[in-house]
Amino acid sequence: MAAVSAGTGRGTTELPIDPAGLAPREARRLFAGGLVAPTSGWCQGFTQANLIAVPRDLAFDMLLFAQRNPKPCPVLDVLEPGRFGGGILGEGADVRTDAPLYRVYRDGELVEEVADARSVWREDLVAFLIGCSFTFEHPMAAAGVPVRHQEAGRNVPMYRTTTRCRDAGRLSGPLVVSMRAVPADRVADAVRVSSRYPAVHGAPVHVGDPAGLGIVDLDRPDFGDPPVVEDGDVPVFWACGVTPQAMVMESRPGLAITHAPGHMLVTDARDSDYAVP
Amino acid sequence: MAAVSAGTGRGTTELPIDPAGLAPREARRLFAGGLVAPTSGWCQGFTQANLIAVPRDLAFDMLLFAQRNPKPCPVLDVLEPGRFGGGILGEGADVRTDAPLYRVYRDGELVEEVADARSVWREDLVAFLIGCSFTFEHPMAAAGVPVRHQEAGRNVPMYRTTTRCRDAGRLSGPLVVSMRAVPADRVADAVRVSSRYPAVHGAPVHVGDPAGLGIVDLDRPDFGDPPVVEDGDVPVFWACGVTPQAMVMESRPGLAITHAPGHMLVTDARDSDYAVP
Fold it and tell me: What class of enzyme is it (chains A, B) (predicted)?
């Protein structure tokens, strides 16, 4: 049983739990109770989701933005306006409390991070659950592709690119990508395995030179931790679920609430539900 | 060069064209010019789409209904409110004229079929393009699975089922399925090939006994033509893009405009764009 190092409201604690073996409901209860921890590796086999909640009058534009940009914004579920649980999130769940950490954006500015979003939530917010590449990291590792940031205990590096998303109504923004350095003889396997998960970003958008995406310095990601790159590795880039946050920064809706990068919502859906064929 | 038998405003005509070899733009121009014909087999390799247009104030519910029911309602594109072309439909296209035949629903009742929808279109309508199983019929045939309705020159049979779609806001309705009778030793191939096209209904929803879907008489479909079933065939059911029309009949929006079954919009997208992995 592995211990997990985590911050709570009261500081960092070693928890006597095996996060990989928890049921999603148990993990959500821990996070609702105040635990703050990155969710990589939690509840193995269950799907984790990016969160973005926007006011009802922007909900069509948001859903259209996601539909037009399915690689960075694959929608797994949308909660009915005014509802906090149900769907793949599970009955009894509360989207306002069950992620470990939230970000609050006002007029496109990140104004605070909170572990409980109830005090900033509004009745007219509509919550979107967006697929996360954690889903294909496990089968990729099982296929012999090293997942270097996981092995190093780091968050995946993420970059804004000069590639534009397709606009939708009042919403626009750049594509954000995550990067995994893959040995040259494993790139084909990384493509093959991730391609089987189109609902969670799917195949890479770019393999090779970061300059092709307008990334100047691979060692300075815009989100997450610096990459681990070994000799003979090729940088492989996947569309990333932080893209909606970059869209919020550019499009400046009055209010948007998201998860904090790496601190995802653990759902009742299974990774295997999203595999094709 | 095959001739195509088609109705125009002036009656049925033999056209000296090979519809399979036409470019999508050319096909759309013929239909905009008044030609009425089923589009099965037209513009081979290019993606055909179901159409549903609803008023702007229902657009979020419609997009959510599609997102929650991705097997019957895989959204290929949504036109910006007030726009008639662009996206996968191609520049210069006009969604109001470029399908061969339209259905107009008022308060859930089918009130007329028109070859040109401009006189009934409203500025606040939002047009949704939904994937169509025509996309996987060609690779299925290429893999040795007989596509019996095509061979017989018939429309595919479609059935309302007792399976419910997931509701979305004010929208609800039953799942509609299409049926293809497949030899028992080819069912696995039919599943395998269609699974590779999740954006156009994907894998079957049901294989075998029609009673499991609440279908009483396979020879009396609710839409399309009666099936061709040979000895040793197994009925295989796929989610169908006519599902939004059944939803309209149940949910009764003030106005909805759709294509007529089998008379699809031919887009500039390629079938191969939707294949995974």
Answer: lyase
